[in-house]
Request: fold
Amino acid sequence: MRQRRLVTTLAFLLVPLAGVLWWRAARFLPSSREREAVRLSLPELEKGFPSHQDDPIYLYHLGSRLQAAGRSEEALGILERAAGLSPDEVRIRRAWTDVLMATGRVTGAQGYLQEFVRSHPSSSEGHTLLGEFYGSQNSMERAQEELETAIRLDSQNSHAWTLLAKVRDYFFNAGGAREAVLAALKADPQNADAHAYLGRLETKSNPEAAIGSLREAVRLAPEQSEFSRALAGLLLDTTKPESLTEAEGLLRKLQSTRPEDAESMRLLGRALLLRKQVAQALPLLAKADTLAPSEPLGAKYLLEAYRLAGETTQVNRWQKIYEERQKDAEAARQLRDQLVKDPKNKDTHRQMAHLMAKRGQPEPTLRHYASAIGAALDSPKALILAANDLTEFGFGKEALALARLAVRHGQNNPGALEARGNALLSLGRIREASVDYAQISDLQREKMPMYRQKLLAAIQKQQQNPTPGERTLLDVQQRQQAEIGPRRTTNELLGLIEKALEKEPESIALLSKRFEMLVARRERDKALACGAQLLALSPEDTQTHARMAALLTDTDDAKFDPAQVEKHLDEADRDPLVQPTLHYVRGLLALRRQDWPVAVTELRQAIAMDPSSDIAYLRLAKAERAAGNEKEAAEATQIYDQRRRSKQEEVDLLMEIADHPNQKSGYQKAIQYYRQKDRASEADAIRREAIRRFGSL
Reply:
């Protein structure tokens, strides 16, 4: 009896203990880790990264979230680590491949996928991934081979069936495409992509069925904007009042979530035209055509709108544009047909690349140039050809993205630097272009006259046709130059720049001026935020990199990050104009490391290149003293003290004018002071102000 009571007591004690142990163990189960990672925000995932570096589930979600936020370079290493920790997990391999593609590492993506398939030959999902990759590169025969292998390994692979439908459709095999998409839906009735593609296949033969398929796709995946756009387009084609209302609702919802989506904007403009609301349709259609030019439908709808508005001049203009775009579209169709028959014809690929560049489409431009020269998509030669073509046709923004990849992959290939310089110049970013051109000229001096001519032409063009923001910038600069004494960044002038930025938020010139002003005002945190914003838009801006390095170095130990400083120094090092700042920053870094000889050398070099920097003398004095050079330290301190006294004397003279603006003596003393210092411009400015106030001196 006593033994039975003991057993019962132990049981009651062990059950709760087992529950606690199970709960603790459950926290480490993949399903629990998955739920935890899914619910965390990106900042929370980043915060927890140090303690989860060996958890592939956590790393997958962190990398995917970084990629979705447009931070592909940061996501790359994290997803690579996740793939190393969990080499058999296909979703990690897919996410890693997506990031490799997003960062232009196409050859790397292909190699990793091929290696995965070699090590997992029976993986249907692995072959699907490789087939999808080949399809994205327009290598349709290889795509078809991989997708058919994937289906042979798993006949219920709905995603592979959907992709195979698209490949068969490319080869004009409509029957085979329909068979594949129906197989995809049989394997997974919830496959939204398959429903959408079935709708595409049925558009001409059975519009009502197509609308039904697309409605189901939208229901299953409302976040996929392309499904909503396709459905709205079909609904508008029916011209039924209830269909028009449904389409307009879909399109307005898209516009609220994706205000820069040109296609939904264009369709909404078309819906308004069907309601005869021309005044509301025209601005939408015009903006859509600006965002996505060269589309025949864009010209067609604008032509219709101006016809309804009775604007004959615009009708004639858009009629010509529409005809030209239609001609290009027909040429593209004929070239595509030729490539289906002869996919390796280099001349046809080159013609298609040129035509795609004319239409402002970077991805097909690059793909066809790569095929034309028999190179990978991330080869510098293909990227350079595509970038230069896009620049020639006025698509500088698209060209710049490709040129940046060419520079990265080409390790400062002169052709890549020239392509980037050309793209920057077409966007009005003259200083950044000049740095690229100067770097080439170090290797190929014979090109400098041509580059100088291009830069002068760009400057003249900018001066003749300034944007409102550029006019504001010029006004602020002139007002600063007209000020008496040391240039001040007043609240009023900073306000003018910030107001101009509200209308042109991505203006590099305005952002650079704001950054310069914030640095001058010693508003460090605001300056760092502005500098980061500037570099996100213009990563090749060497001047901003140099200033950011200085800001990040001259801080307290708690916030100091030497790796970040070195990164900015490396980016700026190719620009000879910022070398004084770079030497100064390297001197500060050496001071922090207590490497006194290097600090002395770097700070002396900074002063030799820019003797106007007062603070450099103070830092040099510290370095000389620490290095045991008392005489040199005293000399540097003396120069610094003299400059500070001179600055105070100048401030006192100007304050006398400010406090007693109606007394001539203050103006006379200031004029005499500036003349003695050989600063004629300041002396003349004060003299003009005195004459304006008193009539004479």
Summary: The first helix runs from residue 2 to 26. The two ends are 121 Å apart (CA to CA). The chain is about 80% helix and 0% strand.
